[in-house]
Design goal:
- This protein has six helices and 21 strands.
- The chain has one domain (8-290): lpxc deacetylase, domain 1.
- The longest helix has 14 residues, at 197-210.
- The model has no long low-confidence stretch (mean pLDDT 94).
- 42% of the residues are buried.
- The chain is globular and about 50 Å long.
- Helix 1 (84-92) packs across helix 2 (115-124).
- The strands form six sheets. A five-stranded mixed β-sheet has the order 2-3-9-4-5, covered by helices on one side. It has a five-stranded mixed β-sheet with strand order 12-13-20-14-15, with helices on one face. It has a three-stranded antiparallel β-sheet with strand order 6-7-8, with no helix packed on it.
- It is an alpha+beta fold.
- It has helices at 84-92, 115-124, 181-188, 197-210, 240-253, 271-282, and strands at residues 8-12, 16-21, 28-35, 42-47, 53-57, 63-64, 71-72, 80-81, 98-102, 126-132, 136-138, 142-146, 149-154, 160-167, 171-178, 194-196, 224-227, 230-231, 260-261, 263-267, 288-290.
């Protein structure tokens, strides 16, 4: 019996563009996502005001610490930040190769969810390329911890997540599922970025007085604001905050450079812990293999 053919890499069938304000800079940006050839990966290309451009691949080696988001930067290049929602949608829809052109530092936040990116990807379509698609299969348990925060990944036949989050006055929230285009778009993509209003307002004041780009674009239209025991305007479905943490996690895991086969357990995780897990996994060749 002949072996089944390996799955193929894919890109977008057509380009799309979207415009919106950044969550942290508050500045408008236009993003154009265009098809790319096999082996490109997800490549961010920032156009500078002087007409030059600089590129950075969406890989864990180029992740740099920035508050409350995922950011990429090469040693000699400019920063590109808040990439996690687009990366999550591209990963969930199995888009391996795309060129992301942006005319500002930060991608748009839209309504705080990944639904606008999902709609754009579905409209553009997906097309297979004449190159095999390699996946990163986890071979043994890898975990990272920081106090009550914990994140691990173990061998599995597909990417699945078991997540837990406890918020004061809101209680414990859980989400478990296997990541597919349908699961991502239906259960995770609608979940919005969130935060407590009592912490957001001082941060916005700090950003205004210091000139730092933190939450300058955050408002009730771009985030789910928590006041006491409620979300202003209500939640988009049950356990919205933990679902958004999983959304971010999917985007951050894509920085490994390919689709991951593994089961993730997450407790109170965030970008810092997500990045630490990816780096620990990828720095240990005995913990994974390409298939």
């Amino acid at each position: 019996m002949e072996a089944e053919p390996a799955p193929l890499q894919a890109t977008l069938a057509s380009a799309f563009a979207r415009t919106g304000r950044g969550l942290h800079t508050g500045r408008r940006a236009t993003v154009r996502v265009i098809p790319a050839e096999a082996g490109t990966g997800i490549l961010f290309c920032r156009r500078m005001p002087d007409g030059t451009s600089a590129s950075v691949r969406a890989l864990w080696q180029y992740q740099v610490p920035q508050p409350l988001c995922t950011a990429l930067q090469t040693p000699e290049g400019p920063l590109v930040r808040t990439v996690e929602h687009l990366l999550a949608a591209l990963s969930a829809f199995a888009i391996d190769n795309a060129r992301v052109e942006i005319d500002a530092e930060e991608l748009p936040i839209f309504d705080g969810s990944a639904l606008p990116w999902c709609a754009a990807i579905r409209e553009a379509g997906r097309v297979a390329l004449a190159a095999p698609r390699s996946r990163i299969r986890v071979r043994r348990l890898v975990e990272v911890r920081d106090g009550r925060r914990a994140l691990s990944i173990a061998p599995a036949d597909a990417l699945s997540v078991e997540a837990r989050l406890v918020l004061a006055h809101l209680g414990e929230m859980r989400w478990t599922g296997t990541i597919s285009p349908e699961t991502f778009e239906g259960a995770l993509a609608p979940a919005r970025s969130f935060g407590r209003l009592k912490w957001a307002l001082p941060l916005k004041l700090y950003a205004f007085t210091t000139g730092r780009p933190i939450l300058r674009g955050a408002d009730f239209s771009s985030t789910a604001a928590i006041v006491g025991s409620r979300v202003v305007g209500g939640m988009r479905g049950p356990a919205e905050p933990v679902r958004h943490r999983v959304l971010d996690l999917i985007g951050d895991l894509s920085l490994a450079g390919g689709p991951i086969l593994g089961h993730v357990r997450a407790a109170h995780t965030g970008h810092t812990l997500n990045h630490a897990l990816v780096a620990k996994l990828m720095r240990d060749p005995s913990a994974w293999e390409l298939v």
